[in-house]
Design a protein that fits this description.
The complex is a heterodimer. Chain A has eleven helices and 20 strands. By secondary structure, chain A is of the alpha+beta class. The chains are: A alpha+beta, B alpha+beta. Chain A: Pfam families: Hydantoinase_B.
């Protein structure tokens, strides 16, 4: 018995390590401006039934959900019987589990007894793949074709190497072909490494041993997930969240009291011809993130977590877009869905309200006279919790942290921009008995003519507080003229000119406060003042 | 008579080793005294000097490994520090780069770690240097003086300065340091980032600088106290402190560059393993160092320990490794190793029906239940004792009754299994956790461990090493003489060494093409010369020294560089081109991508080493009375009577299953393995031909 348990433990670790190694290989060999100075790559191991077995540590759940959702579509397009050892596939189709044009998903089958039994998958945001704006963040893309090149599941490599014709098409559709091909190579290298590790695991544990180990692992996780969810009382809780443009996400979360959960977004507004919709995989990932917040945080993330949660999203709604509605700006909608689920589960537990968080605010800057591209995002403040202040500028709701925000010196060494400020904004956290986390201000001065795309939410409707707490301070995007005049840029601006000498200002929203501000502990207020968190 | 003493202060035990001029070795293992580590240390020093019949004045060198710097950072017990940076970036440390990974992401109760310096002690001054080193905005000296006055009023014990792009142009940092120092009491250290580690990446450079300021005064006073206590004993030899990359530093330098000593203890184990390997003609080694509190694995390839330039103190563990973005990043070079919080003292516990081991440790106080020092919780050592693998640890008699009682109460009872079964599970889980550390440094990096030799060091290692090796298909385990204090033995021979580096960004083709500006190559050569001069000055090295120069190389547009050594001699287009070729080769090996895109240099590094000189190899210690006989040992699901050999009396070959005991540790040779005593006094354990391993 001890031996079995030990073997299971070793096997489980080996699978997670294989996924982790794949993500490290991708990060270290990629060219994407998004990846090189901070952000992480996603890597996962799945089985031929499409079940998520393991994924890399820092993978955002929405990326992990994308890899999981896409595999069945791949298998539909390319039946397992038609796959050969050495095949590698790529896709980005938002209606087939993908995210948007720039997020490439790469899969490689791992064979047992001549048939694909497992798949390794990797995913990153690549440098550029066509579309209205360099970097793929055009907020005026009214359909998916304007977001970038569409890739259904296609074979990108075989045992003989890259499929050159495909690579040529992809390169021809990128403003930065060298970087794109580099990123593609990195994704394939990552999937190959994980596949090699999986082969070694199969050799060490036998195919049957691995299959049994995977079953046990998923079953054990599912049992723990159900045990955690069973702590929620039977009944239904409702939540809603309204996006900046007035669109509303509504959700009902129903617990059967025995560990089963139904999450139904019936009543959510319809999809719109702008990139604010979310593909199903992204919504699913967001739901799993929110639900995971109410069970043991140390639970491994695999199919066992997905199994007890039934997610219903109306087809053609803002959270489950259909062709040709674009899905590239999904994180605002996904964050709203997460906030709504957090609120619904909290209502179910009769545990007071939830103060909302500032979310990540993306932007891309590209050269006018020569091709260069800077893509990054800044992070908003978390909502205050009942017992403690919200965290400053972290990737709440997205599963990332500051590590994804590049440092100043490498950016200046690489690009014609000068960063003049990266600072917490005093008083940006919503006041309350506990305070919302602070947002940040980043000021980037252009040294050459450039264009900027912005993509944010919770800027027109700042994150509300709860239980009498105040909303966080609304962030925004601004153009700072050379003479110091500050003009607002849109919260979803596209290709706005920034002349040399002008600056882009990105301010993220603070989190909402919790409880009446009058109830704040005077010592906490004094500490905030001493630290400059309040003016 | 001239003797060298080496000492390694661990979380549980303090190991002291004396090497006599004739090669004789004396060993003392004392319990670490956490309140004042010099206490346990001095007890050990007095003991080995006494045992050797030497006089304190005979000691000519005192080499020391200490976890002080790590502990100060982890426990946040450094001195109050003020931090000064460029205007606009006062939030730099508060924002940090903490990645929320694993469970942190789903934790609604997540609380941000406090920044290493409170915002209230963080200041910004108007000034700006550009990425090319040009002054974009001169330092505002009046504003700087106003900051200096406020820092003086804060009453801090040290100041850290990190201004943007100071790695290219340090003039603002240096002038600011003068202005601030002028307002502070004499002796308050003002540390600039360009002096500590002039590499690009402001956050990492800032934390490295800050930690130097934060730990430095604590390290200085510790080393002063140690020096005084040694002097009181009559030992006036210079004190050398192990640094993270495997060399040793003079005590004064260790105090002013305290961040260099963060991996002091663990590095010693890898150095020891490399040395043992060299003696045996083995170049590919995995050092496995398992003490009371932690276990570490390091890799030696081609005789050289791996070095990393990015590690985190207090980083969140992931599979025994350190995950970037989760701790305090320290840029100075360190021996690359993986650490798991699991050692002989790790506490076993039942958690909702499953058995867990660690990460809590019983440490030295109260220690495992079997020590009889008040510990009542079962540890890995207790399990090993119940299974018959141990008999005693030197002067520490072990109480098997207490071990059984602790396991029965806290593990076997709650899980509904019997005590021996529970003990076997604890032993196996500890092995699995050790495996995670070995995994990180081998398999995870695409390195097949099967061709390597596992070198067992530390009191608990020999008990676990052979089974650990078997799990990886490793067919050779080396147990050096004095394996139980192996890290301290490694210190005996450590060389004085220091590394200096600075960012040097330049495309390779600009340094190698026919039209290459001679200026670029000259700049690189000048950078190396300046780094070498500074490193020699650190060590007061005027004469012969081993100088190694290396460069960071990466593809233009990527962020991660490989470090490639340059040959001695002039810097030419050819040497740079060969470095680029080596980079292409290693990139291909590492990632399976055969790419020849344009590459660039990122960093110039120089390491200066003053060899300690060859000592006579330690002779085997004087043999204490052998225990001999036989013992009941749990093997493959049953107790078996197996022979017990006294290591001192061991010669030739011995077959498993058996146990080999020595004062500081106990080697378990499972069935299917056999041991040989090597000419160098080590034990080499290998599978029987056709055996189970």
């Amino acid at each position: 018995m001890t031996d079995d348990r030990l073997t299971a433990e070793i096997l489980r670790n080996a699978l997670c390590v294989a996924a982790e190694e794949a993500s490290i290989v991708v990060v270290r060999s990629a060219y994407s401006a998004f990846i090189v100075e901070g952000a992480d790559a996603a890597a996962a191991i799945l089985d031929a039934r499409g079940r998520l077995v393991a994924h890399s540590l820092s993978t955002a759940l929405i990326q992990c959900a994308s890899l999981r959702s896409a595999l069945p579509h791949l298998l539909k397009a390319h039946p397992a019987a038609a796959m050969r050892p050495g095949d590698v596939f790529v896709l980005n189709d938002v209606y087939q589990g993908g995210i948007h044009a720039n997020d490439l998903l790469v899969f490689r089958p791992v064979f047992v007894d001549g048939a694909p039994a497992y798949f390794t998958g990797t995913l990153i945001h690549v440098a550029d793949l066509s579309g209205l704006s360099a970097g793929g963040m055009a907020s005026d893309a009214t359909d998916v074709y304007l977001e970038g090149l569409q890739l259904p599941p296609v074979r990108i490599a075989t045992a003989d190497g890259l499929v050159d014709d495909m690579v040529a098409v992809l390169a021809a559709n990128s403003r930065t072909p060298g970087k794109l091909v580099g990123d593609l190579r990195a994704l394939i290298a990552g999937a190959n490494v994980a596949a090699r590790r999986l082969d070694e695991i199969i050799e060490a544990h036998t195919p049957a041993g691995l299959a049994r180990g995977v079953e046990d692992y998923l079953a054990h996780t599912e049992a723990r997930m159900r045990a955690g969810l069973a702590a929620l009382p039977a009944g239904t809780g409702r939540g809603a969240y309204v996006l900046d443009d007035g669109h509303r996400i509504a959700v009902e979360v129903t617990s059967d009291g025995a560990g089963g959960l139904t999450v139904d977004f019936d009543g959510t507004d319809e999809q719109v011809p702008l990139p604010v919709n979310s593909g199903f995989s992204q919504t699913h990932g967001g739901v799993m993130y929110a639900v995971r917040c109410f069970v043991d945080p140390a639970l491994p993330m695999n199919e066992g977590c997905f199994a007890p949660v039934d997610v219903k999203v109306p087809l053609g709604s803002l959270l489950h877009c259909t062709r040709p509605y674009p899905g590239g700006g999904r994180f605002g909608a996904v964050a709203a869905a997460e906030e709504a689920v957090l609120a619904a589960v909290t209502a179910l537990r009769r545990a007071g309200g939830v103060a909302a968080s500032g979310i990540l605010q993306a932007f891309s800057i590209s050269g006018v006279h020569r091709p260069w591209l800077h893509m990054a995002f800044d992070l908003g403040g978390s909502g205050a919790r009942r017992d403690h202040d919200g965290a400053d500028a972290t990737g709440a709701l997205f599963g990332g942290g500051r590590n994804i925000v590049p440092q100043v010196e490498p950016v200046e060494a690489r690009l014609p921009v000068r960063v003049e400020e990266v600072a917490l904004i005093p008083d940006s956290g919503g006041r309350g008995r506990t305070r919302g986390g602070l947002g940040t201000r980043t000021v980037l001065r252009m040294l050459e003519d450039a264009r900027v795309d912005t993509r944010g939410d919770r800027l027109l409707r700042p994150p509300p507080g709860a239980a009498g707490g105040e909303p966080g301070r609304a962030g925004g995007y601004y153009r700072l003229r050379a003479d110091g005049t500050r003009e607002p840029l849109g919260t979803k601006a596209t290709r706005q000119p920034l002349a040399a000498g002008e600056a882009l200002v990105v301010e993220t929203s603070g989190g909402g406060g919790y409880g009446a501000p009058a109830g704040r502990d005077p010592a906490a207020a004094r500490r905030d003042a001493a630290d400059g968190r309040t003016a | 008579m001239s003797v060298t003493i080496a000492s390694d202060v661990g979380g549980t035990f303090t190991d002291v080793v004396l090497l006599g001029g004739d090669g004789t070795v004396r060993v003392a293992k004392t319990l670490t005294t956490p309140a004042d580590p010099t206490e346990g240390l001095l007890r050990g020093v007095a003991q080995v000097i006494g045992d050797a019949g030497a006089a304190p004045a005979d000691v000519t060198r005192f080499v020391h490994a200490t976890t002080l710097a790590t502990n100060v950072i982890l426990e946040r017990t450094g001195v109050p520090v003020a931090f000064v940076t460029t205007e606009g970036f006062r939030s730099m440390l508060a924002l940090g780069r903490q990645a929320r990974v694993e469970e942190d992401r789903y934790d609604l109760a997540y609380v941000q770690p406090d920044p290493p310096v409170p915002l209230a002690l963080t200041y910004a001054v108007p000034e700006r240097i550009g990425a090319d080193g040009a002054v974009l905005r001169p330092l505002d000296e009046d504003a700087a003086d106003a900051v200096a006055r406020r820092i003086a009023a804060d009453g801090v014990a040290a100041v850290a300065i990190c201004l943007l792009h100071s790695y290219r142009n340090a003039t603002h940092e240096e002038r600011l340091a003068e202005i601030i120092a002028a307002r502070l009491p004499a002796g308050v250290p003002v540390v600039t980032s360009a002096a500590v580690w002039p590499e690009i990446g402001e956050y990492e450079r800032a934390t490295t600088t800050l930690m130097s300021a934060y730990v430095g005064p604590v390290m200085a006073s510790y080393l002063e106290r140690l020096g005084a206590r040694l002097a009181a004993l009559g030992v006036d030899a210079p004190v050398h402190v192990m640094e993270s990359a495997g060399g040793v530093l003079p005590a004064a330098l260790a105090a002013s560059r305290a961040v260099y000593t963060i991996e002091s203890g663990p590095a010693a184990g890898v150095i020891a393993a490399a040395r043992q390997g060299a003696r045996h003609g083995l170049a590919d080694l995995i050092s496995f160092d398992m003490g009371g509190t932690t276990a570490k694995a390091g890799l030696v390839r081609g005789g050289r320990p791996g070095i990393t330039h990015e590690f985190q103190v207090g980083g969140k563990g992931s599979f025994g490794g350190r995950r970037p973005g989760t701790g305090v990043p320290i840029k100075v070079p360190a021996i690359d190793l993986a650490e798991v919080g699991s050692g002989g003292g790790s506490i076993a516990w039942a958690d909702a029906g499953t058995l867990r081991v660690g990460p809590r440790s019983a440490g030295a106080d109260p220690g495992p239940a079997c020590y009889g020092r008040g510990g009542t919780l079962p540890t890995v050592t207790d399990a090993d004792l119940v299974l018959g693998y141990l008999a005693g640890f030197g002067e520490f008699a072990l109480d098997a009754g207490r071990a059984r009682a602790a396991i029965a109460e806290h593990v076997a009872g709650p899980l509904g299994v019997d005590v021996v079964e529970a003990a076997a599970a604890i032993h196996d889980i500890a092995n699995a956790q050790m495996g995670a550390a070995v995994h990180v440094v081998t398999v995870r990096r695409g390195i097949d461990p099967r061709g390597f030799t596992l070198v067992a060091l530390g009191g608990a290692a020999p008990t676990h090493a052979v089974r650990l090796a078997a799990g990886f298909g490793i067919a050779r385990v080396l147990i050096p003489p004095q394996a139980g204090v192996g890290s301290a033995v490694g210190l005996l021979h450590a060389d004085l060494a220091i590394e200096r580096a600075r960012t040097f960004l330049a495309p390779v083709n600009e340094l190698t093409s026919c039209s290459a500006s001679a200026g670029g190559l000259r700049d690189l050569a000048d950078a190396f010369d300046a780094l070498e001069d500074a490193a020699r000055a650190d060590l007061s090295a005027t004469g012969d020294a081993e100088v190694t120069r290396s460069v960071g190389v990466r593809f233009v547009g990527q962020a991660h560089a490989f470090t490639v050594d340059l040959p001695p001699g002039p810097i030419t287009p050819g040497t740079v081109q060969r470095a680029a070729e080596e980079f292409y080769k290693r990139y291909h090996e590492s990632y399976g991508i055969d790419l020849r895109d344009p590459a660039e240099l990122t960093t110039a590094r120089v390491r200066v080493v003053l060899p300690a000189g060859e000592h006579a190899p330690p002779a085997p210690p004087g043999a204490p009375a052998g225990t001999g006989g036989a013992r009941r040992v749990w093997l493959d699901g049953a107790f078996r009577e197996v022979p017990v050999h006294d290591r001192a009396a061991c010669a030739g070959e011995f077959a498993g299953p058996c146990v080999v005991t020595e004062p500081q540790c106990s080697l378990l040779v499972p069935p299917g393995w056999r041991g040989t005593v090597t000419a160098e006094g080590a034990l080499l354990v290998e599978p029987d031909a056709g055996g189970e391993a």
